[in-house]
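Researcher: I'd like a candidate sequence for this fold, 160 residues long. If you have to choose between options at a position, lean toward the conservative one.
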């Protein structure tokens, strides 16, 4: 069994290429462009980049962008960023055909966004994103993933 890839700090890394849904592909395969493992953007830039990726149908890397802020940003805002990252994971599960995972993560996202009481950074449309996550989770729970199209998996993180 090959030894695990590790970064300079000894943390496990998987440098295999990935498909558009974040699933690992065989070594040497063509995958989507990967974000750097250590990418941490300021909140405003992170929301812009996450939106760009979601609009391109790439919620898995959008999750990575939001997770960077969650794990490395302002400690007082971590739960908000965690909820936004969970939203992106819920979208990823929906893309992968995992209705149960989509409903669970969208529900966690909606719950986390609903509990947020602090100021909202980066002009995130907190109420709109929470309502979107709740609506999509209910729809998937009731009718499954059939009938969803690309537009259904493209929430607006900021108001229009």
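Model: Candidate sequence:
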């Amino acid at each position: 069994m090959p030894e695990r890839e590790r970064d300079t700090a000894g943390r496990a890394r998987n440098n295999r290429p990935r498909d558009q849904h974040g699933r690992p592909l065989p070594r040497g395969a063509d995958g989507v462009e990967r974000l750097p493992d250590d990418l941490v953007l300021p909140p405003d830039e992170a929301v812009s980049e996450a939106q760009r990726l979601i609009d391109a149908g790439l919620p898995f890397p959008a999750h990575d962008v939001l997770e960077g802020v969650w794990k490395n940003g302002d400690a007082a805002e971590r739960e908000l960023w965690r909820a936004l990252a969970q939203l992106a994971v819920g979208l990823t599960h929906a893309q992968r055909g995992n209705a149960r995972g989509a409903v669970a993560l969208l529900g966690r996202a909606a719950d986390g966004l609903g509990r947020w009481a602090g100021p909202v950074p980066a002009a995130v449309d907190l109420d709109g994103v929470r309502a979107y996550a709740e609506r999509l989770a209910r729809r998937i729970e009731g009718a499954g993933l059939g009938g969803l199209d690309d537009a259904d998996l493209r929430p607006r993180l900021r108001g229009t």
